[in-house]
Give the backbone structure.
Amino acid sequence: MQFLERTTAVLLPGSGSDADFVLRAFAPLTRLCARTVAVDATPPSVVAGYRAALTAAASDGPLLACGVSLGSAVAAGWALENPDADITLVLTLPPWTGAAGPEIPAAMSARVTADVVDEVGATEAIARMRAGSPPWLARELSRSWAAHGDFLAPALREAAVYVAPTEAEFGRLCARTVVVGAEGDLIHPVAVARQWGAAIPGAAATAVDLADLGPDPEVLGRAGLAALTAGC
């Protein structure tokens, strides 16, 4: 994996998540990189901030873009729009393909959560989330949702309407790519990861178990590293 030694890793969290999580999740990869940029969601636009971070890092040389959910969709879209960029993609827990219809679990979850935040406030929304979530997820989201502050609901709504690349567009993606799904994840169905992996030329598709991800976020980075190593 010597090509990573001169690479800038840009880490893009999922909607409602934060840089703290992706730094831990992708540590097996970033340990090999020259520099790491972990991006938090900031107003006025999560997507614009992610894209700006990729563009800025690309000016310094090769990129390793590691995304979770929304972050994966934005990274893939940026790579499609910048075909001359020297970029490697590790796309984890992809949320949907193309436009998010009303039945898409990740988009529905984002919309419903934003509505709850607007209705009862972030503190009560966090309390309700903690009551209905596994302990590891409650810990992660309690921290990241609180850090979003007043930007939480707008950030979630922006994510819910984001248009990911279509299968036809993925067919034009020429970057070295790994797609990582999670078995048992109802919000990010592993079938979407398989769809992305099949549509992207030369992509490696793999999966982890959601039960392993909770106590050890690094399973995402290890899966990505293993797939990149096998393909090099």
